[in-house]
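Here is a typical sample entry:
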Amino acid sequence: MQLPFRAGRLLLRPRPMASPGPKRPRGTMAPRIGTHSGTFHCDEDAEIIRTRDPQLLAECNVVVDVGGEYDPQKHRYDHHQRSFAQSVHSLRPDKPWTTKLSSAGLVYFHFGSQILASLLEREEEDPVVQVLYDKLYENFMEEIDAIDNGIAQWDGEPRYAMTTNLSARVAYLNPRWNDANQDTEAGFKKAMELVGREFRDRLDYYHHSWLPARALVKDAIQKRFEVDPSGEILLFSQGCCPWKEHLFSLESELGVKKPIKFVLYADQSGQWRVQCVPTGLHTFQNRLSLPEEWHGVRDEALSQLTGIPGCVFVHANGFIGGSRTQEGALRMAQSTLAQQTSPDTPSS
């Protein structure tokens, strides 16, 4: 019987499973990775055995998501057994993540640094590899672990459905219940390609975009008093970058006492934006929103209302505004700061 597949067992292509090193000599048997039912060759470096047959699984070098056993010394990585309750934190107390691991999470935990080092062509101990290991777990892997283990993201009923995450898109590749052909092999191969591609794309983004942005955000924080005496406005002179997570961590690291309220940057058209700093990474609440009476107003009407020439817009929710000039965007932020009743009281 061929069973449906999920992202929790598909995340990692077999190629990086071995430690970086010389390629396997010709004529050497490919390592065998066992998971659920059926057989196909993922690429030239490993053979995927999809089965529940204990005898076939015993012949595999690595067994993932089947077999009822977690034993890294024997390369057995199942999480379905009643006794299993491991998380990244339980296996490595210096890491904060307490979500129960799926089989994909187990493989990432044990081999992730080797995989990243191989893909990035760096040593496993390189600080860049270690930073990206944590980032990929927190923003790619943990979601898969939680969904695979049936862990809700929040308590109670959500306000809207999330149906386009990676796990959902993998599930859609299974045969429909009423398809005449219930063979899962073609879909399984598509799922391997989908998950592997997204993993590599996400790594590329964090390596070449997110990580370099940290230096720009740090520089802007250190120069914030040159922008405005309050120290509550940042200027990104090179344009917008992935700033939010870096800002929160650097405020703590650099001992910023007065929370930063606004960031300024030029958009792709050459106009300027003033954006509110949220109260956290996963919220739409702001530390200080643009004034309510500006919300949804545009162009000349907005300039007349604010007394600031060159205004373009303020979003209806007040989290971002636009100006034709850097000076105009700065004045929009300064005017908002001047109107607040208490500089350190967050506003929604």
The CA atoms of residues 100 and 150 lie 10 Å apart. The longest helix spans residues 185-222.
